[in-house]
Please model this.
Amino acid sequence: MLPRKEREKRTRRCARERKEKSTQENAREKREKSAHENAREKREKSADENASEKRKAHTKMCAKREKSAHENAREKREKRTGK
Model:
């Protein structure tokens, strides 16, 4: 059996090693987690941007179509009333 001082030293050393190991593991997990989260957020952001661009294009196309329909109706009215 080891003397009391030696046992206490070993206990403190083991506790310190466990703490360092868990700190390193936590840091590694945090880096991995943040990398995964960053990738997910990047995918979501690009998906949102793509959807936004599609909505803008669709709105613009619909407005253009509606405008030409109004113009056609106006021209038809003018032709009818002009004759």
Notes: The longest helix spans residues 4-82. The chain has a mean pLDDT of 88. The two ends are 119 Å apart (CA to CA). Helices lie at 4-82.
